[in-house]
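[RESIDUES AND BACKBONE]
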Amino acid sequence: MNTEPRLASQHTLAVLLVRATSDTDAGVPRSTSMMITWVAVASLACLIILAGAQGQAPLLRLDQPKPKCDGQARSTYLLGPDDQLEISEPELAELAPANKPIRIDGDGDIQVPLAGRVHVSGLTVQQAEEKLDQVLRAYVLRPQVAVNVAEVHSQPVSILGQVNKPGVYQVQGHKTLLEMLALAGGLQADAGYSIRITRELEWGCIPLPKAQLDASGQFSVAEVDLKKILEDPEENIQIYPHDVVSVPKAEMVYVIGEVKRAGGFVLGEHQSISVLQALALAEGLNTTADARHAQILRLEPNATEREEMAVDLKDVLRGKKSDVALRGDDILFIPTSTGRKATLRAIEAAVQAGTFAVWRIP
């Protein structure tokens, strides 16, 4: 911090104070001289106080740079409350059964024979061993403590969204993204192809090319393409404690009615399909289909009801009319030619209830 302006101001006030004193001797009225003196003293005192405050707590600058990812991450598990530890030391075998789990309490302490309560929360296993060695030196000659983590309860990872068993899981050892998804029961049929990972910055930035900091600068955020994970092992990154893995619901188009394979078809990221492509995925029309009176049911943004768009599939199939692009969440309905009709509300209710099969596009 530049201190030259502050020092210059203090010097100027000091000179002013000296002049005020000398002016009294030079015939300047005493009241005027005293006023100048008090102003100078008060100003100098304020500067000294401000200087001390600035030395203790620098003012926050608006242009202060945001934290940056340094690519570093903790590679060692940190002990925490409710973890179960197995502690062994040859000289303590008679006082405590070997390999009997000891729980870390809510304060982060464990009860150690001879030594009593010892704080180990926030330490690595190696650091805990070193601390216990140091504590037991007062009671045991050359202690050799070995610590093993029997059960982990303090390092949660949240798996949310379209997985079969969403919830909070505990990281024990090295766990990759695919391993954590497997612990959550795998993906649901309507899961999207893009998985979002949020990580506390103290664990380092997510090692992916498109990882970014969030607006607060406290979290690293990245999205992973599910197909890339299966093709490139480097995309299957390690998951750290307190990570949040979110699996969004995929965009789908629904083909309902007189087709051979009705249901919802999952779209990939930024993928769209046409009416004919959707019809091909549904394995074509039934013989009872009324191809001339097909409909696309589309929900526009901010709308409360779906818009009906008539599609003459027979003319589209013959090339007389252009193919129509479908959007995510569109419903392509092909009625029957036997006179039975389904209402719009019944079709939408069936889609929302999830009574149709969901198919993933290969």
User: Anything to note?
Assistant: The chain has a mean pLDDT of 78. The longest helix spans residues 30-56.
